[in-house]
Please model this.
Amino acid sequence: MCRVLASLILCLPLAAQMVEGVVKDGDLPLAGVRVYVDTPRRVLAAGPLAVVSDAQGVFRLPVPGGKGVLVVEKEGWLRDFVPVSGYQAALKVQLRPDSGFRRDRVLVVRLSMPGIASLRSEEELREVLFGTGPAVSSASAYVSEATRGRLRLQAGGTVNLTYPARLPREVDHARERITAWVLEQLRMRDLRPFDWVDNRTGLPGPDGKPDHLWIIAPGACRTITDNPAHFYVRSTLMPLPWQKAERWPVVFLTEETPVGTLVHELLHAQGEHSVDDYYLPDAADTAGRWDPMDAGQLTGWERSHPDQGPWLQDTATSPALPMAYTLGECWYRGAFRDLVTVEELKSGAWEGWIVPLIRAPEAGVQALRVADPRKPGRFWELSVRRSWGFDAGRTGDRPVPEGLVVARIDPSLLTTDGDSRGPVRVVDARPGTKEPPKPRYPGGRWELDDAAFQLGGVASGEDGPLYWHVLGEDAQGRIKVRVEVGDVSAEKPITSRRTGRRKR
Model:
């Protein structure tokens, strides 16, 4: 009987502990800060309990087992993730105001089309595009988290149009023609309320184009289903029908476009394709699941089932956050560079702590950039990825590995025409392992989901003249690492220190 009771007790969830903390802006208390326990990002579902700090900046929140990570956010301040490793004393959280904070208005054009039934209500679509609840998966929530709270996308207005022409059997053949028709319908409308920034740089100042123009067709998403009766999701620099030399960034999507597929295209559009595709056909050593411009756009909570819908709730619901390079150098051509604290090493050795990339930039070094002596301009990026926020995405029931991610980056390989040359290559910590079993990502993209280095696992690695070793980890999610750049003339074949197998 005692054994049965003991088993029942062990199966019960850990009791929540009331965690108390205070949020300050410098020495002053900060009221109105939203705080909640970080949980998996979900679509069209209620999030966790959130509390708001009082006039003294104090908050009290039940945390399961007294462990986890808290999300701390307030519009106009850089948001942060604060680890809680057992409740012992009041947490002290510092936020700092962000002078670059803004809310962008999105112009949505929703289409009705002959022969294609609508699958989502206005309310459901609004939640997928602009939902802001705790741990909600939406395009706006993703952009806000990726930019540390600096940029929030909000509904600016919806134009409902009915496309009059008959569609071909393979509907995507008509996508550009449909987009041009939509632009013609918008030609005489006053779009100045949607034009506040330069689409290339993201800097304040109108450029004669809508900042965010999204066309939504009815039906499923061919990017997931590979069905010719469905449209692909695409970001296009579309020539204006009445002024061919002028091009507007337009995102064409469908009602059942998963959040990850949508944000991949949004990053293309925000900067007029300065953010490149990173994946390559049949290549194993790309960025994998570690960036939304590769397979990271497809990380989701449950499963991949391209032959049956609906897809929004369980496919690509939790896309990976951008690497430091994508966020700081490519997105809007460097407009978000100050959101990542980067340490640079040109030669020799470096030893120190690297803070999880997802945290606010003042938390410490978030990315180590090491120059590659073999080619000018090429470098390695070392960062720490944790299963926090959108980075907690899963495929099936597999846990997300976390730790030190090392990528070799060659900016000279960037393109703007969609013909990727693979500018970002993640170094695989376990090159001898096979890709995960089903469910696989749509399209069979290489995942590299075990590429992270960590204490107690694969702690050391090398890529050409670069060598690194994980020295320690702490309760705040940081990793201590030693990095050395060796003699190029004595370079050895690239191998895994665990398996000894030659990498591709």
About this structure: DSSP finds seven helices and 22 strands in the chain.
